[in-house]
């Protein structure tokens, strides 16, 4: 037989006929299906395998380490990733979307129907997990050798259904249909210990050593998912760890008839990576969570050491080969684990190991919320990780000695800086550990990074001011514009050239067109089409009819009091009452769209969902309202659904209490898609407003400084209730039971607002209503609105995650991207 050219045998030809053939081969040979009997899901799997061949092929060429001196690699340690559906994204990145469409069409298969089959990996809660995935996308795009390390949860974030107006959580069985993207790497499996005790020994040079004798060992199996970049020959790797028992189950117990005992350890081990904790910005405090954190941190560091060894380098060169980013404190225990690996396993001296550790890690803080700051009871920590507790205590003792020497007599400083919280029962403060063990600490927007230095890590910022920096978050324009908004993309390519998805600052070329009436008309057409597409989906999922010509007012994000969905709802209900009082009131038609999941145990968040569905039930079919207001709760907000929602937004609600939202990224996605923002001076809103121009942004509300002042001087929500008639009537209306379910239904929410109002909803109600009035006024002038919308998109170039990643590369990781900057 004649030998084939390597490319043909790799099935990675890019002509429609070649893709068609590869697809048919996979259908038959990988899936064992005759084309005539193949289901839509088989089609999906076959196309996914076809595309995976292309991506993996790129991967082996780009990750091979051909260079004489290997580049420093980036390891992004994150307990969460939210990649979204892979297939369409890869097609876009590889430039194969249209070819694949043609190839399938020749077999009478519709690409869109195939794309619908994919289950997205919901391995995260919200912003933090999605940011990690945007960053992998950009790392691949700008050409940095990188691995995103995390956990292969068997069950990701729950699927949300709405029943009788309430959230119901359904188990996310994302792996049930098979996962064509991942490659299991048995050779990369690592063992991780838990519990047990430590013992001392003396090495050949008479030095005191410690070893850890864990009580149990769990195996981490590696599963790799390649992440392609836009128009790039690099791929990033997402390497997720699945926990398994190290041994087969206990046959001795089994033979003695003790079946429970026989499988106990196996079950315990497998449970470790079973499920994602579904709380956002909230400390879990559960032992299993700490086990998850240590499990993936340890597997990942051991993996880096293994790769280092393959490159012929030793552990003393660790920091030269790896820059490790801690995505929040979830992997902060990695600081202690790297120390253990270096001193106990590789027998380095403490000082050298500590230098390497600090040169390796950097830490990103994502929240100031006190209930989200991780701390572990010292006893629990010591029982699970006895050696790590010893190491942390040693790190702390040495650190505090340095502080004592620099600030003699300032014991208060010692107590505040200590990694151990000793005000009562003792805790390990994970943010302190991450900060002490890192060379750089960053916040995720300018305001937030300042607040990190003034609040949670103020004492550290005082002693190490140079350690702190900001990297404002970004989002990938590939998924959130090019894929999600094809109509807009065509327009952008015509107006700003085709390169904008990889060079987002090119969008500034649009500026001039904001004054072009013809262009504005096209712009509005695209938005209207996107809104019609969403309206159809809304009807399909909720039965609610909406008018695509009405103002689409969108608040999609996790449900949380600090994000203040209830402020939005109070405003909606006040508009409703206004129309009821005066049917001629001049209020332009609006569709209010909410989406987002509530943590299953977060009672008030679930009340907020219920009140939004109740508002819809009350308002949507009220003949007096006559369709002028509609309220929709769009169920199961996830990456796939988000791709329909963002392009359809006219107005983006970013109304958190100032100082609470670290950055926000939905704010960027909507503005980039031409929505105008109504928002507080919080997180990245501040920078978005600066970028798009204050005249194209609806600002309202207390500033972070004013919020702190109110918090110091005391807040009196009842005063607002009593002095503001509109507010009082709205609250009384809810309390009266007019929303159904009896007058007691929303009592907890009302009582919370009137008695505590921790997020100053009542204090900002008036200003919010006035800003909404300005929104309505601009909306009545569609040409002015379109102009502002175009300018939003045109000026959002800064918020590409490519820019963020280049900043991390240059200022934090000290690595050089393969692709030169724009
Ligand atoms: C912050 F602390 C946390 C968390 O546990 N989960 C999470 O999604 C978010 N975040 C912030 O709330 C957002 O403001 C920010 O944009 C996002 O992280 C990414 O930095």
UniProtKB/TrEMBL annotation:
Record EC number: 2.4.1.1
Any Pfam family matching the protein: Phosphorylase
Keyword set, alphabetical order: Carbohydrate metabolism, Glycosyltransferase, Pyridoxal phosphate, Transferase
Catalysed transformations (reactions): [(1->4)-alpha-D-glucosyl](n) + phosphate = [(1->4)-alpha-D-glucosyl](n-1) + alpha-D-glucose 1-phosphate
Known cofactor(s): pyridoxal 5'-phosphate
An example molecular function term from Gene Ontology annotations: 1,4-alpha-oligoglucan phosphorylase activity
InterPro entries: Glycg_phsphrylas, Glyco_trans_35, Pyridoxal_P_attach_site
NCBIfam families from the UniProt entry: P_ylase (TIGR02093)
Family affiliation: Belongs to the glycogen phosphorylase family.
Reported function: Allosteric enzyme that catalyzes the rate-limiting step in glycogen catabolism, the phosphorolytic cleavage of glycogen to produce glucose-1-phosphate, and plays a central role in maintaining cellular and organismal glucose homeostasis.
Protein name as annotated: Alpha-1,4 glucan phosphorylase
Species per Swiss-Prot/TrEMBL record: Haloferula chungangensis
Organism taxonomic ancestry: Bacteria, Pseudomonadati, Verrucomicrobiota, Verrucomicrobiia, Verrucomicrobiales
């Amino acid at each position: 037989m004649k030998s084939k050219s390597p490319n043909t045998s790799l099935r990675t030809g890019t002509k429609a006929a070649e893709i068609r053939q590869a697809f048919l081969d996979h259908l038959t040979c990988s899936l064992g299906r005759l084309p005539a009997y193949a289901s839509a899901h088989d089609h999906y799997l076959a196309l996914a395998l076809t595309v995976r061949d292309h991506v993996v092929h790129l991967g082996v060429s780009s990750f091979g380490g051909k260079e004489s001196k290997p580049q420093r690699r980036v390891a992004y340690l994150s307990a969460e990733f939210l990649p979204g559906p892979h297939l369409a994204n890869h097609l876009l990145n590889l430039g194969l979307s249209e070819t694949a469409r043609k190839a399938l069409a020749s077999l009478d298969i519709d690409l869109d129907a195939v794309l619908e089959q994919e289950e997205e990996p919901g391995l995260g809660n919200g912003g933090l997990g999605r940011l990690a995935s945007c960053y992998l996308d950009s790392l691949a795009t700008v050409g940095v050798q990188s691995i995103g390390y995390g956990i292969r949860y068997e069950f990701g974030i729950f699927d949300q259904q709405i029943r009788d107006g309430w959230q119901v959580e359904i188990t996310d069985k994302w792996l049930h249909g098979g996962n064509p993207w991942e490659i299991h790497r048995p050779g990369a499996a690592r063992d991780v210990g838990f519990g047990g005790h430590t013992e001392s020994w003396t090495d050949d040079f008479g030095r005191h050593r410690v070893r850890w004798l864990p009580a149990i060992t769990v195996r981490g199996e590696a599963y790799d998912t390649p992440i392609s970049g836009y128009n790039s020959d690099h791929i990033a790797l997402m390497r997720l760890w699945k926990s398994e028992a190290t041994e087969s189950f206990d046959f001795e117990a089994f033979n003695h008839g003790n079946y429970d005992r026989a499988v106990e350890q196996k079950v315990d081990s497998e449970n470790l990576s079973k499920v994602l904790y579904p709380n956002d910005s909230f400390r879990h405090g559960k032992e299993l969570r700490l086990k998850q954190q240590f499990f993936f941190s340890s597997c990942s560091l051991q993996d880096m050491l293994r790769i280092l060894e393959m490159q012929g380098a030793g552990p003393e060169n660790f920091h030269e080969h790896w820059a490790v980013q801690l995505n929040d404190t979830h992997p902060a225990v990695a600081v202690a684990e790297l120390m253990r690996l270096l001193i106990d396993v590789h027998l380095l001296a403490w000082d050298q190991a500590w230098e390497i550790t600090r040169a390796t890690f950097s830490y990103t803080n994502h929240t100031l919320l006190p209930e989200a700051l991780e701390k572990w009871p010292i006893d629990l920590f010591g029982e699970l990780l006895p050696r790590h507790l010893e190491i942390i205590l040693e790190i702390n003792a040495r650190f505090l000695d340095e502080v004592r020497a620099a600030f003699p007599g300032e014991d208060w400083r010692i107590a505040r800086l200590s990694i151990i919280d000793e005000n009562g029962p003792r805790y390990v403060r994970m943010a302190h550990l991450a900060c002490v063990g890192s060379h750089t600490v960053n916040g995720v927007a300018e305001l937030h990074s300042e607040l990190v230095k003034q609040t949670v890590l103020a004492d550290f910022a005082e002693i190490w001011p140079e350690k702190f920096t900001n990297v404002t978050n970004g989002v990938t324009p590939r998924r959130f514009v090019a894929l999600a908004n094809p109509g807009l993309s065509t327009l952008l390519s015509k107006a700003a050239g085709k390169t904008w998805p990889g060079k987002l600052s090119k969008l500034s070329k649009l500026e001039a067109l904001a004054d072009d009436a013809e262009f504005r008309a096209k712009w509005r057409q695209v938005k209207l089409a996107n809104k019609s597409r969403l309206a159809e989906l809304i009807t399909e999922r909720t039965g609610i009819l909406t008018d695509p010509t009405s103002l689409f007012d969108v608040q999609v994000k996790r449900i949380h009091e600090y994000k203040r969905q209830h402020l939005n709802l109070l405003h909606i209900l006040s508009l409703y009452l206004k129309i009821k009082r005066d049917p001629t009131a001049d209020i332009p038609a609006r569709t209010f769209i909410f989406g987002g999941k509530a943590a299953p145990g977060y009672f008030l968040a679930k009340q907020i969902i219920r009140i939004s569905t109740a508002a819809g039930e009350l308002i949507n079919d009220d003949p007096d309202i006559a369709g002028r207001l509609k309220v929709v709760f769009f169920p199961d907000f996830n990456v796939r659904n988000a791709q329909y929602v963002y392009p359809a937004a006219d107005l983006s609600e970013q109304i958190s209490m100032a100082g609470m939202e670290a950055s926000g990224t939905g704010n960027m996605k909507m503005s980039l898609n031409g929505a105008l923002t109504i928002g507080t001076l919080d997180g990245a809103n501040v920078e978005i407003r600066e970028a798009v121009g204050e005249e194209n942004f609806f600002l309202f509300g207390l500033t972070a400084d004013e919020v702190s002042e109110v918090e110091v001087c005391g807040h009196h929500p009842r005063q607002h209730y009593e002095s503001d008639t509109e507010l009082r009537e709205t609250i009384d209306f809810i309390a009266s039971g007019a929303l159904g379910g009896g007058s007691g239904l929303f009592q907890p929410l009302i009582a919370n607002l009137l008695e505590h109002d921790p997020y100053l909803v009542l204090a900002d109600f008036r200003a919010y209503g006035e800003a909404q009035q300005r929104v309505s006024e601009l909306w009545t002038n569609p040409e002015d609105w379109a102009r502002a919308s175009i300018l939003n998109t045109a000026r959002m170039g800064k918020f590409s995650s490519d820019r963020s990643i280049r900043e991390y590369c240059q200022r934090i990781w000290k690595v050089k991207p393969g692709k030169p900057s724009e």
